[in-house]
């Protein structure tokens, strides 16, 4: 795959993964009653927003098109999040949902990075920054599961 296509794919998946994180946090936020979890998800949402802005900047710089996640996926995610959080809004259950979703995002991001290793270093670094932030988020959520 050529460098331009690799740049496109890595930047797009980085943007979409961040966008999905923001979307999921927005949908689960009202169900959160634990102050530590509340603070944690707002911090993570800020990180996702920061990454999305950087993606938009790189897209402009490299003349690439980035797109949001598709509406069907958003609708399915919305329904799942709302139903699961309505049935059980305990901190442990919300953390579990966030861990599962974030882990799926990490996996998707890593797969795309592995398949597009010729992407520009700045774009790969942005994807890596997202991966690292997501892994730290999961680790923080794990501590809330046992406390």
Walk me through the topology:
Blueprint: H1 3-28, H2 35-62, H3 71-87, H4 91-115, H5 121-146
What does this structure look like?
- By secondary structure, the chain is an all-alpha fold.
- The protein has a single domain, classed as Up-down Bundle (Ferritin).
- The protein has helices at 3-28, 35-62, 71-87, 91-115, 121-146.
- Helix 1 packs antiparallel against helix 2 and helix 2 runs antiparallel to helix 5 (121-146).
- The chain starts with a helix and ends with a helix.
Compute the CA-based radius of gyration: 16 Å
> Which fold name is given in CATH as the topology?
Ferritin
- State the order of secondary-structure elements, H for helix, E for strand: HHHHH
Measured between the Cα atoms of the first and last residue, the distance is 47 Å
Topology, number of strands: 0
β-strand percent reads: under 5%
What can be said about the biggest beta sheet? none
Nutshell version of this structure?
The protein has five helices and no strands. The radius of gyration is 16 Å and the shape is elongated. It is mostly helical and 147 residues long.
């Amino acid at each position: 795959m050529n460098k331009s296509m690799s740049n496109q794919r890595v930047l797009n998946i980085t943007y979409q993964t961040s966008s999905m994180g923001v979307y999921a946090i927005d949908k689960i936020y009202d169900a959160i009653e634990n102050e530590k979890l509340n603070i944690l998800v707002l911090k993570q949402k800020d990180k996702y927003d920061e990454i999305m802005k950087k993606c938009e900047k790189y897209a402009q710089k490299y003349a690439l098109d980035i797109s949001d996640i598709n509406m069907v996926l958003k609708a399915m995610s919305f329904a799942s999040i709302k139903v699961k959080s309505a049935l059980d809004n305990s901190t442990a259950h919300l953390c579990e949902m966030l861990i599962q979703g974030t882990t799926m995002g990490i996996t998707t991001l890593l797969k795309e990075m592995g398949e597009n290793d010729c992407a520009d270093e700045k774009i790969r670094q942005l994807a890596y920054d997202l991966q690292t932030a997501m892994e730290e988020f999961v680790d923080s959520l794990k501590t809330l599961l046992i406390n």
